[in-house]
Amino acid sequence: MRGKPIWHHPLAWLLCTSFALAMANGLIIPSFEAMDESGHFNFARYLAEGNGLPDQRDVVLAEEYGYCQEGGQAPLYYLLNAPILRALGGDMSDVATLTVSNPLSTCGDTTQPYSKGQWMRDPWRERWPYKGAALGVHVLRVFGSALSMFTVVGVYMTARAAFPQSRVLALVAAALVGFSPRFVTHSATLTNDNLLAALSAWGVYLAVATLRRGPSVVRSLALGVVTGLASLTKVSGIFLIPLAVLALADVAWREGEWVRTLGHVGLVVLLALLIGGWWYVGNIVRYGDLCLVPLITQASGQRGRWPLYLVAGETVDFLRSYWALSSYCRIPLGYPAVYGTLGLFGLFGGILATRRADRPVRRAVALLLIWALVVFSAWFWFNAKVWAPDGRYLFQAHAAIAPLLAAGLLALLRRFGPRVYGVTWRGLILGMAVLAIITPVGMLAPLFSLPPRYADGQAPIPHPLEASFGDQVTLLGYDVSSEVPRVGGAAGLRPGAVDVTLYLRAERPITEDLTLWLQLVSAGPQDDAVLVNFRSWPGGGNYPTTAWRPGEVIADRYRLRLPADVPALQLWDLQLLWSRPAGREQGQTGEYELLPVRVGGVANDPSLTLTRLLVEPAKGRSSPPPEVVLDSAPAFGPEREVLLEAAEVVPDGADLRVTFWWRARKPLNGEYTVFVQLLDENWNLKASGDGPPRRGAMPTDWWRAGDLIVDEHRVPLPESMPASEGRGDYHIAVGFYDPDRRLPAWDANGEPLPGAAAIIDEWR
């Protein structure tokens, strides 16, 4: 009877989906933007050009060629990549033009979603058909994505060998790896981790199969070849040799066939040494070091020590980046809380399931646990020498971790009965696939995509405003999401945001990378406070001005995040500036020169104000502090539009610092000045601190019903004032006026106050 076609097997669909996701990630991530990708590529390029293994003592060559510390890695991955690059032909030395440092990079800054790339972008070199180094890196990414499928199959086979009663368990284990956002994303890049993960998965499978079924010549031959290849891929691949020996020793212990088992051990070790030993022997002969670890870590910087207070935090980061976080640039690739929950449930369920399992299953579980602990311990030792809390070092243990977690999760799901079990395990796989799809579509693409571009005259511009910056960039208009953004939620801990879109056009080819600045500065003419100071290359760092095409209109969109500690309601001016590098070579940080601005042909300040925003503080700041609330709150305005809820007078050197908390009941029709007067016992004016609310940053014609305005004034004390007066000798009077009159003032009982002024405090 003929079996079903392979495409009927759910594993085939899982592999196709996982491979497609890896390819999508590889197309989205710009060339060489993955961790150490330029070093891996340049090592393969060095070999492809007919060179032998580089001398690790030649630091100058390593820097000039660009392979840096990667040239000290075990060479198998690069020896496999070199023929691919050679077959592509063409000059790939233009890798240097794709790896010019980005001086505005926010790599590692989790508060900033723009300019994540470490290199200056040239988007036209990243378009199909690829050429030069861009072609080479994308072809090698396809090779890496294919290697990741071997890893997934190896995980599936390991789960089948360790838990032969359940095909579902093997499928869930494969999904835990094939739909892991970090693994899929990392698989789409140039790294020897891809080959190591695949070889390790198959090495673990062969070890478990040997443990369960006993040794065979074919299995031992395969185990020796795989362990040898793994040791030639990365130094940590050596650990597969003792794992294989342990599996064979267990068989010998149970069956008592020590002589036969020793033969298999010798076969495995001999093959591994023949395949990978030459590189290690060569290291000893040439450098006096077996694994080149000191030489590799010398380039990346060795730690003097690993303080205990950092151990827990870095271990958590290590585990988070195993699932859903790129340790490089701290880019989120998924939802760590979801995968952390799956891991905890899988661990708990695994403990329950193992207690009830038969002895062969428990032996297989023990072997998998040992392998996971060995890999984790190797990372722990390495991280103590070099800061590297990166979960990719745990990929080598995929074939141990995924089957164990799958066994635990399914053990818990079985408790809900057969019907629920059948639905939930399918839902688990589907849910992981959906979460993996979110990574390229919802998380990576927005970071690296180009901004929308339109033909001249076709862009939908809500607020036209034509202004030119220098003779290079024209602002055609803008759009702002909200005129009244609020900071944070109820607790004021999460920052609010303002969405800004700039419609820009290049008037001619631009030969230098111009920087745009978006700032929120205080609307007060005498206030130099800055709430937001954002700068970037256009397109969120992905579309520098040197790549612009004259005449096209770019819709450049940004979300300006507001700080969570905005103290009070206030107006802020949204300003746009452009600058060019000054006195430095292109691509280097240094001094800058602001471009001159012309609006309607008329010269303007270098900072162009687009609009004025009323920024609200967190909801927790909607009331004044209880200790300064007035017992009898006066009101101001013909209809008592403004209530003075609280006031505070504090001596501050030669001044009095007077703070008011105004509550607007209704809008005020007009712009008024607050007068603050210091009166003596005879009600004579001794000093004053008049001024618009918040020094002009919160004019009264912007006040809305319900607003709380915190307003500070300074009253300079006269030098002739007696120093020995008693309390009650001086009074603080406050009110409002415009050029024509004072606003009427009322006491708490609704009676008019003399002089339209409220006495809010006495001072000595």
Characteristics:
five-stranded antiparallel β-sheet, elongated, alpha+beta, 23 strands, Coagulation Factor XIII, Chain A, domain 1, seven-stranded antiparallel β-sheet
Number of domains: 3
Q: What is the distance, rounded to the nearest whole angstrom, between the alpha carbons of the first and last residues?
A: 105 Å
Uncertain residue ranges: 488-494, 584-589, 723-727
**Average pLDDT for all residues:** 89
> What level of helicity do the residues show?
25-40%
The major β-sheet equals:
7 strands, antiparallel
Shape descriptor: elongated
What's the count of strands?
Answer: 23
Could you give the order of strands across the largest sheet?
3-9-6-5-4-12-13
Task: Please compute the radius of gyration using only Cα atoms.
Answer: 34 Å
Strand content range: 15-25%
Number of helices: 17
Overall structural class, as computed from helix and strand content, comes to: alpha+beta
Explain the overall architecture.
With 764 residues, this protein is an alpha+beta fold. It folds into 3 domains: 6-30 and 167-442, no CATH class; 457-619, Coagulation Factor XIII, Chain A, domain 1; 624-763, Immunoglobulins (Immunoglobulin-like, Sandwich). It has helices spanning 10-28, 37-48, 59-65, 76-88, 132-162, 167-178, 181-187, 193-213, 217-231, 240-255, 258-287, 293-300, 308-323, 336-356, 359-385, 398-413, 418-448; strands at residues 325-326, 331-332, 453-454, 463-469, 473-480, 497-506, 515-522, 530-536, 553-561, 570-581, 592-594, 597-599, 602-604, 608-615, 635-636, 642-652, 655-664, 673-679, 685-688, 708-716, 730-737, 745-746, 758-763. The chain has a 7-stranded antiparallel β-sheet, with no helix packed on it. α1 (10-28) runs parallel beside α6. The longest helix is centred in the N-terminal third of the chain and has 31 residues, at 132-162. 43% of the residues are buried. Mean pLDDT is 89; it is low at 488-494, 584-589 and 723-727.
